[in-house]
Structure to design on (188 residues):
């Protein structure tokens, strides 16, 4: 019997493909926490995180036999998590636009400002939430989760330079959003 703690992702994947439920559970246990951080970085706090994680692992399970291994299991799972998170963000914006009658930019701002920030961390997260989906994904993977630029590019399926460009634009946007208005103190 395969020891899920000592086995590599590739060994667990191969065993899971042969129907070993413990091996699949080992992959879930190994990657759950990191994926939860990624999804939380994309969506902010809330119930949607657990739903997205469940969708990620269900999709992964359904695709065990077609996953070719061109990327690592970790990269593949992160790609699914980012895509599912983007789906949730799009659904949120559609609902806001429908019920509030806002355009895309207004819906983003309304969602980000719907609750008052309670401290500097909350202020930063609300600013990140106002970024475009592409910029938010890069900020979450690169700065929050600590992936390298190359790993971020692989997870998102974009070029290295695209990650750098999105990160630069996101940094500038965050700098502008977090800059205090004239006569206002910077949040502490």
């Amino acid at each position: 019997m395969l020891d899920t703690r000592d086995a590599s992702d590739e060994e667990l994947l191969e065993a899971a493909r042969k129907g070993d439920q413990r091996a699949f559970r080992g992959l879930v246990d190994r990657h759950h926490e990191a994926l939860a951080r990624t999804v939380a970085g994309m969506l902010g706090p809330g119930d949607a995180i657990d739903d997205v994680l469940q969708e990620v692992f269900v999709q992964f399970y359904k695709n065990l036999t077609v996953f070719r291994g061109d990327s690592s299991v970790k990269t593949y799972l992160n790609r699914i998590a980012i895509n599912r998170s983007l789906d949730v963000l799009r659904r949120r914006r559609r609902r806001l636009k429908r019920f509030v009658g806002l355009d895309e930019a207004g819906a983003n701002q309304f969602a980000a400002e719907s609750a008052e920030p309670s401290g500097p961390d909350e202020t930063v997260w609300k600013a990140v939430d106002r970024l475009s989906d592409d910029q938010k994904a890069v900020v979450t993977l690169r700065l929050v989760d600590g992936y390298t630029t190359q790993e971020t590019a692989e997870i998102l399926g974009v070029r290295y330079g695209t990650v750098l460009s999105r990160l630069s634009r996101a940094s500038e946007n965050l700098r502008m959003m977090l800059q205090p208005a004239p006569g206002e103190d910077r949040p502490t």
